[in-house]
Predict the structure of Inner-membrane translocator.
Amino acid sequence: MSTNTTNEGASKEQQTVTQSEGGANGNQPKKKKRRGSLGIILSLIVLCAIISILSPRFLTLANLKNVLSQATVSAVISVGEFLAILTAGIDLSIGSILALSIMMMGIFAVNLGINPIVAMLLCLAVGSLFGLVNGLLLTKLKLPHPFISTMGTKMIARGLALAVTAAAPISGFALSIQYLGSSSIGPIPASVLLVVIVYAVMYIFMTYTAVGRHIYAVGGNVEASRLSGINVDKVLCIVYTLSGFMSALAGILLVGRVNAAYPLAGTDYETDAIAAVIIGGASFAGGVGKILNTIIGVMIIAVLRNGLNLLNVDSAYQTVAIGVVIILAVYLDVLRQAAAKRA
């Protein structure tokens, strides 16, 4: 009886790992998977075409460079959200972790005069540690869903970010800290090159490493993953630690752009990240998604925001528009899941 159960679990896990190629169904033809990716790219192209017709300034080199630069923070922080959603979870704390990480970096680098490179490493350590706490709350306290644990740590991190400097911002960072967010290598912003490197590394990690395949497997079927010998708790801790790390890295980019750390930084960043990940084809059900499609989702959100600015749409209505996009993105996920069940 035990042997049969184990074999059945291993079989389920093998089917789940097959989904790591990015499809909603392990038996789905590759052509259909490619069609999904092309559909997301086509959506971005159509959106760009519409905005360029409505505002000729959109396609100017200066504006396109501005869109790319503005999208870099969201692109990096969305990587962590992608990993959480891939495991059928969610991380609501990424914006608050960003804020706490950069506030601590400001204290280390500006207030205490610590070496800027060391301060950046400490910033990444703070983000990673808070991410690990998210993972431990989920796996060791057995909280029912990461929505609960990350909602709690979201409030804790935001409160600490406000408390450590009595809500005062910190400015005057060293040029080495500002470099990634404000400098260019030739005509290309350093932040854009960093995003390319991050996504290339994550693609390799998710596609060619055992841990990457285990992340897909856990998202596809937790019990089957356990039965096949995968350490689910370890995988989840890795996922949320990486999410915290990406939040801190995104914070360093943000500080580089504005030369300041402020405790309300990152507010609502999780909503844009969730929308970008779902638009990119990932599913709240877990086990489905491609990291490279996430950057397309990020660009759709960035282009939409930029277009609304160019058209002088009131900021209140911009918020309404983004809210509509988030609802549509989740509805598309519901439709994808229904189509996958029928297939």
